[in-house]
Amino acid sequence: xxxxxxxxxxxxxxxxxxxxxxxxxxxxxxxxxxxxxxxxxxxxxxxxxxxxxxxxxxxxxxxxxxxxxxxxxxxxxxxxxxxxxxxxxxxxxxxxxxxxxxxxxxxxxxxxxxxxxxxxxxxxxxxxxxxxxxxxxxxxxxxxxxxxxxxxxxxxxxxxxxxxxxxxxxxxxxxxxxxxxxxxxxxxxxxxxxxxxxxxxxxxxxxxxxxxxxxxxxxxxxxxxxxxxxxxxxxxxxxxxxxxxxxxxxxxxxxxxxxxxxxxxxxxxxxxxxxxxxxxxxxxxxxxxxxxxxxxxxxxxxxxxxxxxxxxxxxxxxxxxxxxxxxxxxxxxxxxxxxxxxxxxxxxxxxxxxxxxxxxxxxxxxxxxxxxxxxxxxxxxxxxxxxxxxxxxxx
Amino acid sequence: xxxxxxxxxxxxxxxxxxxxxxxxxxxxxxxxxxxxxxxxxxxxxxxxxxxxxxxxxxxxxxxxxxxxxxxxxxxxxxxxxxxxxxxxxxxxxxxxxxxxxxxxxxxxxxxxxxxxxxxxxxxxxxxxxxxxxxxxxxxxxxxxxxxxxxxxxxxxxxxxxxxxxxxxxxxxxxxxxxxxxxxxxxxxxxxxxxxxxxxxxxxxxxxxxxxxxxxxxxxxxxxxxxxxxxxxxxxxxxxxxxxxxxxxxxxxxxxxxxxxxxxxxxxxxxxxxxxxxxxxxxxxxxxxxxxxxxxxxxxxxxxxxxxxxxxxxxxxxxxxxxxxxxxxxxxxxxxxxxxxxxxxxxxxxxxxxxxxxxxxxxxxxxxxxxxxxxxxxxxxxxxxxxxxxxxxxxxxxxxxxxxxxxxxxxxxxxxxxxxxxxx
Lengths: 395, 423
Prior knowledge:
The complex is a heterodimer.
Chain A: E1 6-15, E2 18-19, H1 21-28, E3 47-48, H2 62-66, H3 70-85, H4 92-96, E4 99-103, H5 111-121, H6 127-138, H7 143-147, H8 151-160, E5 167-170, H9 172-188, E6 194-201, H10 206-213, E7 239-240, E8 242-250, H11 251-256, E9 263-271, H12 280-290, E10 298-302, H13 308-319, E11 324-328, H14 330-333, H15 340-354, E12 375-381, E13 387-394
Parallel strand pairs in A: 3-7, 4-5, 4-6, 10-11, 10-12
Antiparallel strand pairs in A: 1-2, 1-8, 1-9, 6-8, 9-13, 12-13
Helix pairs in contact in A: 3-8, 5-6, 12-13
Chain B: E1 13-22, E2 25-26, H1 28-36, E3 43-44, E4 57-58, H2 71-90, E5 101-104, H3 112-119, H4 127-136, H5 142-145, H6 151-160, E6 167-170, H7 175-188, E7 194-201, H8 206-214, E8 244-252, H9 253-258, E9 265-272, H10 287-300, E10 309-311, H11 318-332, E11 341-342, H12 345-348, H13 355-369, E12 371-372, E13 395-396, E14 401-408, E15 412-419
Helix pairs in contact in B: 2-6, 7-13, 10-11
């Protein structure tokens, strides 16, 4: 234990299961919990939809809410919860010195405008002119700002006054991994004392599904747990809307403010397997070894997406270590892309803090864990590229 | 032996390779010749029809094979060409860089040409449903990869043999500067001896142009394109959308010395501060930009009077130039009227995600060549902005230190301080 350790002092979570760390804990410790599914709106795809959210609770001004689409609102909301949880929200001194790293994709396009242009394209050869004609007249000017990747962070600055610094990382699950890894490195090296880090994903929009389906990654047909989608129709990924933000803090800084500490964030490791060359198995094994796993039973919060190849590689690497008891939370939340790794780390921190393991999320594929988890592994093996893991230790 | 650490005991970070592409051409030599001759790269848009558009000019890079093949492919090519020049200059192995990659690039979306072609390859259903059904029948990953935010960096990592998980970032128009800052920080933390920082932007599509246009951000001075970008002028009316790339090889001074590399400049300090005022406008008192400049100076261990030249963000929008002047005059006080401050964007336009990296490259060359590129089109000075903008003609000058500003939508403010000599 060192004063420069990185600790987790705030958690904000939203998923189909509800909102907040307590609500997630209460749900997730129920054995045999059924997922919340929406199977008709995007048929043949199933998604885990957002719960009812009262945006006013974290985004007081209607004007701010109107400037955002659901993705940015969701992230800003989850970020506000994490700041509240850490006792930072509304504290000017702490907010103006707080750094921020957000993992982001893009925001929602206007589906009606796009559909209109596509429909018109069937009878027009001058499609580029059509595009100019429609976009100049039909696009809502401020929608651009709701689409820009870095404007989730921008909205967090505006709504929650976090202004120490603001950086946005892009690149699916890898963005979430790099955000957590970089934030932790900055705290360990003394470059920062407290950082807001996380992301959000709003899957209930056709473009967000298209981002997976252009490579056939989405699972189709009846829902199945994340480990049981091989052989089913489609590519294995079931997506979910959600967000996860963490307040990472230098231990000394958190203690001096008398804050509750969920857990210590241990090593965060990341990699880029050249999957075309078949390097994924070796890369996962290398990350497991770099993470310096402790002896004994190890609860593992897996961010596995369900994508066939990546999920099979992760499962076989985890199964190869008899000490590991994995919990694939995508079974219950769906895959949340950029938010996947921060979500995994948050669930790991909760288990450490509550001194109890989650029951199997899929009893047919996951084995029991009986002890008290003092160290928990969190993983995110990208559905297409990039890999990362972190060890989360008792505070 | 000179000190290898800076005023805060951190490894000194130096630049050993520089690469650049803009509408003025490929590579440092062509760009520098044009830039110091006051040549503009702004020209009429030919990549797509301009019917219905208020702005019909840009600083697009139209001379690459991928120039008309979509934002993702062009951004990759721009990044690769700049990085290749930088890595070659650094004398490093082209395929085995051996350090991390930090890429500033625009957010990606499925290009309209792909949307049209997917949609019209089928007749069933309508709208998004049809696109999704066609998508799941696609063979090959080419279209898919243009929509993945991590794919350009993934390809670059393969190409240059960078180490680990590459970071793709966006801090809007400050992105290029942030990519450099991330590299500097990684070296200072001792995580690596060298880093490859790239800013690249090939996203000047019709939709991007229309989006900025709808926010009234773009110049509509279409008649004489090369005159449209006029930072700090009274009649400035917006920025000119442009494309380009800049790449730096960053190394610890120790690592660079030990392999006998030529040191092209020092990355002395980085500063940032977010603005919580508005999504596109800055706080009226300029305090976030002021704080970013001061943070960069403090990080560099320099006082205000030790900066010789400012490479301005200077976008040519009414708002930016006014706020940049306010911020700089607050930090530098009376000296501001006599410090040279020029905007490369007067010639190359605003290269968005690439701008911070492109302008860092030009800042380093300014010091090495002892020539300050001008702010062109400065025919009608804004009386409210009294600055020495190095008007219209390059200037020979010994420049030992440069401040380079980058400000962006979403409250992004990032400043870099560079120096010619180690400490």
